[in-house]
């Protein structure tokens, strides 16, 4: 292995950040800026539709396979675990071959694996393929925000990152809304194949839209370079606090969407699966709030936005305890809007904060984010089994409270 000093690592980062002398990044009125946002929006749709489509099928899977809610949730958790395992390796690949090339490879591999998942002959094979599919999908969230910081003018990266996050909300909603209702008509395999077809179209759009990268040049990064970037990030308390926001709140978010469908299809409401799956339309609130967060951060400051949005997460979760279904929907909308505003703010903040090893810094955010999804999203199934919906909500409020305390104690105030 080639030895690389921290100074050499910084030099490599500098070369990667400025592939063209004087390059400042695309501006909002430029054609390539619009192509980047549309392309990454398509990538977000392809990634998150595949990643979370089984979530719309969880009650159906649990009944059909005669397994518990937590066991059924493994079809989601193993994929998000795959993302968490893969984001750091993807950041290393991207340093060597370029962000855009790595994202292209990731989206093609994930599209193929999405078809194989739908054709899996058994649950064990399906779960194994979901893990590998998640590892392929990890290349997109691991690199998208880093890519934006290199290709978009610095004064517009927060808004551009928020636009990308809004695309991920559309993908997350689309996968669930396609898979859930179709499962009752064509079975789970047909539903997942339909999602895979949708993702293939979005992947082609991404491949055709993205302009040639100008802000990064492959640096031939070694494992030592990557480890230096990781160590630098893990020594920064602000980055650690941002990672905590992602882990705690993403875990809470996935748990709510994992287990609310069980409540809606249960004795309390008795909704059919095709109707209960429509709760994922609440993702529209995240699409709006993530874009709005990018605009409001400049006025309120990042920490204020994080704390206010976390407050919305708590309020929304508590409102879902209501018995009237319309109030449950309102609570879910508030909860979803709050979560995606936090995520859009925190993920953009990581990219802005990291000056050395930016790819590793953003990858570590994704490790925390998807680890929270995998572990907490699965574990809160035991709260559902033991205490029902109040147990899930109490756990979610507790996670949000811890995230808020970390933010107050560690994240700097101001803009």
TrEMBL record:
<feature type="compositionally biased region" description="Low complexity">
    <location>
        <begin position="1"/>
        <end position="13"/>
    </location>
</feature>
<dbReference type="InterPro" id="IPR036259">
    <property type="entry name" value="MFS_trans_sf"/>
</dbReference>
<dbReference type="GO" id="GO:0005886">
    <property type="term" value="C:plasma membrane"/>
</dbReference>
<dbReference type="InterPro" id="IPR011701">
    <property type="entry name" value="MFS"/>
</dbReference>
<feature type="transmembrane region" description="Helical">
    <location>
        <begin position="363"/>
        <end position="381"/>
    </location>
</feature>
<comment type="similarity">
    <text>Belongs to the major facilitator superfamily.</text>
</comment>
<feature type="region of interest" description="Disordered">
    <location>
        <begin position="1"/>
        <end position="26"/>
    </location>
</feature>
<dbReference type="GO" id="GO:0022857">
    <property type="term" value="F:transmembrane transporter activity"/>
</dbReference>
<feature type="transmembrane region" description="Helical">
    <location>
        <begin position="238"/>
        <end position="257"/>
    </location>
</feature>
<protein>
    <submittedName>
        <fullName>Putative MFS family arabinose efflux permease</fullName>
    </submittedName>
</protein>
<feature type="transmembrane region" description="Helical">
    <location>
        <begin position="269"/>
        <end position="288"/>
    </location>
</feature>
<feature type="transmembrane region" description="Helical">
    <location>
        <begin position="387"/>
        <end position="408"/>
    </location>
</feature>
<keyword id="KW-1133">Transmembrane helix</keyword>
<keyword id="KW-0813">Transport</keyword>
<feature type="transmembrane region" description="Helical">
    <location>
        <begin position="300"/>
        <end position="321"/>
    </location>
</feature>
<dbReference type="Pfam" id="PF07690">
    <property type="entry name" value="MFS_1"/>
</dbReference>
<feature type="transmembrane region" description="Helical">
    <location>
        <begin position="186"/>
        <end position="207"/>
    </location>
</feature>
<keyword id="KW-1003">Cell membrane</keyword>
<keyword id="KW-0472">Membrane</keyword>
<feature type="transmembrane region" description="Helical">
    <location>
        <begin position="105"/>
        <end position="129"/>
    </location>
</feature>
<dbReference type="InterPro" id="IPR020846">
    <property type="entry name" value="MFS_dom"/>
</dbReference>
<keyword id="KW-0812">Transmembrane</keyword>
<feature type="transmembrane region" description="Helical">
    <location>
        <begin position="36"/>
        <end position="52"/>
    </location>
</feature>
<feature type="transmembrane region" description="Helical">
    <location>
        <begin position="327"/>
        <end position="351"/>
    </location>
</feature>
<feature type="domain" description="Major facilitator superfamily (MFS) profile">
    <location>
        <begin position="36"/>
        <end position="415"/>
    </location>
</feature>
<feature type="transmembrane region" description="Helical">
    <location>
        <begin position="72"/>
        <end position="93"/>
    </location>
</feature>
């Amino acid at each position: 292995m080639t030895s690389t000093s921290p100074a050499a690592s910084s030099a490599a980062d500098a070369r990667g950040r400025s592939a063209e002398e004087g390059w400042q990044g695309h501006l909002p009125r430029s054609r390539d800026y619009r192509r980047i946002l549309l392309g990454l929006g398509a990538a977000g749709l392809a990634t998150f539709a595949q990643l979370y489509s089984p979530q719309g099928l969880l009650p159906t899977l649990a009944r059909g396979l005669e397994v518990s809610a937590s066991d059924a949730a493994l079809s989601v958790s193993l994929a998000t675990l795959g993302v968490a395992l893969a984001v750091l390796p993807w950041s290393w690949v991207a340093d060597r071959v370029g962000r855009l090339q790595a994202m292209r490879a990731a989206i093609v591999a994930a599209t193929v694996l999405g078809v194989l998942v739908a054709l899996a002959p058994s649950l064990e094979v399906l779960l194994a393929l979901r893990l590998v599919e998640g590892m392929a999908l990890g290349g997109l969230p691991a690199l998208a925000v880093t890519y934006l910081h290199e290709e978009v003018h610095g004064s517009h990266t927060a808004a551009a990152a928020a636009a990308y996050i809004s695309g991920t909300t559309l993908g997350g909603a689309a996968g669930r809304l396609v898979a859930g209702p179709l499962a009752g008509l064509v079975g789970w395999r047909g539903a997942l194949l339909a999602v895979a077809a949708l993702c293939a179209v979005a992947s082609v759009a991404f491949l055709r839209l993205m302009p040639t990268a100008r802000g990064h040049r492959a640096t031939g990064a070694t494992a030592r370079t990557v480890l230096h970037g990781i160590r630098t990030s893990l020594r920064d308390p602000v980055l650690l606090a941002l990672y905590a926001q992602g882990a705690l709140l993403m875990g809470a978010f996935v748990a709510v969407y994992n287990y609310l469908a069980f409540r809606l299809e249960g004795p309390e409401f008795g909704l059919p699966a095709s109707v209960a799956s429509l709760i994922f339309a609440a993702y529209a609130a995240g699409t709006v709030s993530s874009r709005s967060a990018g605009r409001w951060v400049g006025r309120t400051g990042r920490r204020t936005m994080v704390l206010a949005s976390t407050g919305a997460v708590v309020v929304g979760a508590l409102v879902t305890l209501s018995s009237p279904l319309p109030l449950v929907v309102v609570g879910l909308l508030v909860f979803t809007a709050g979560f995606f505003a936090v995520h859009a703010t925190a993920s953009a903040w990581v990219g802005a904060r990291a000056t050395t090893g930016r790819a590793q810094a953003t990858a570590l955010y994704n490790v925390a984010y998807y680890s929270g999804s995998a572990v907490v999203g699965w574990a809160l199934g035991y709260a559902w089994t033991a205490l029902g919906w109040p147990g899930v909500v109490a756990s979610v409020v507790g996670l949000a409270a811890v995230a808020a305390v970390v933010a107050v104690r560690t994240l700097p105030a101001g803009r």
